[in-house]
Amino acid sequence: MEALVNRIWYQNHWAKWLLWPLSWLFALISAVRRQLFRHGIKPVEQLPVPVLLVGNITVGGSGKTPMVIYLVELLRQHGYHPGVISRGYGSQQLHPRLVKVGSSASDVGDEPAMIVQRTQVPMAVGQDRIATAKLLLAEHQVDIIISDDGLQHYRLGRDIELVVIDGQRQLGNGMLLPAGPLREGAWRLESVDFVVENGAQQDSAQRFAMQLQAAKPQPLHGQVELTATQVKAVAGIGNPQRFFDTLQQLGYDVAQTQCFADHHPYSAADFSDAAAGLPIIMTEKDAIKCRTFTAANCWYLPVDAKLSATFSAQLLAKVAEAVAQKQIAKN
Is there a binding annotation on residue 88? Predict the structure, then answer.
């Protein structure tokens, strides 16, 4: 099913026209919902600190998690105390809860668990983003909140909107769900503060370029260094081919690949052939769910987002402006 959806969304498969009427219904419902918030019929709730929202207009992975980590580190370097909120996709929890180092991905979601493991940033997850943000503010000294996803969650007031676009897949066939991958039309990019293209080589007038720079593969167990060059690649992310291509660019001979659905709940059965087979390299997001049952020959590939000094300067200027506006509102 997932393969068929990808063909419809990204390879211009004719079946998109069968779903086209449903896309019009989706567009109508979305437009009505936006207008309800725009005209105050549904209230938008503002928080006492600036909210920097990192989202996308497409379904599936685009590189938001490395972007969030980049922003956490950038803001810290310039004296801010950021916190992060997320829905915690894949979590079994319904109510807001704090994410701690070592939190289970099944409890808080794989991406939140990975973000906190990497940065130790104050973070909370929950289906109700307002309640989640309030829990975070009550428990931590946070002066700016990064919302991981939630671009279409209009109840949450936001001061800065940043959208990440997959540079390879772009906007697919340009159609709304379910005929295409779009949650909102391409017009939405004109209304946000920053558009970041994951995989672009250089900034343009409309978009900032983001590159994912891979670090040395890290073992899931012990301190064993990966010396083999022929490997099996495993990925349960939105765009696994990007990960496989990265490994090849790093010089690995990717002899086997295995794809799982994004946010796949891994189990030991998924690695039943690991002990006797090729060394396995997976993404960092996958690794956060696999440490307790994988064999010794498993590694993950950390990646860091790299953006231009121009982007960082403009982002920080926008944050300073948002902080000033919040101070005015308080007074």
Answer: no
